[in-house]
Amino acid sequence: MIDYLEILRLNNLGYSQRTIETTAHCSRHTVREVLAEMDKHAIQWPVDDDITHANLNRMLFPDKYKSACTLNRTIRTFTVSWQSVVLH
Fold first, then answer.
1. Distance between CA 78 and CA 84 in Å, rounded?
2. Structural domain of residue 71, as residue ranges?
3. 16: DSSP letter
């Protein structure tokens, strides 16, 4: 899981993207993408205490969240259809 809060905190402290990558255990691409989305949505450190990683994930990457929800619905639909076929 990507630690969005840690990436944001380290960036605020002035760490380089390479240092953030190493400390947060993620790729340079991920750090670059997260920081770009943080800027786009004007999210700055410190964040409110009630903001969680899941909240940030939904705010920063809403399309990824929608895809996961759609996939989950599709899998459930497929499973129900498959069970009805087996029962007949």
1. 10
2. 4-87
3. -
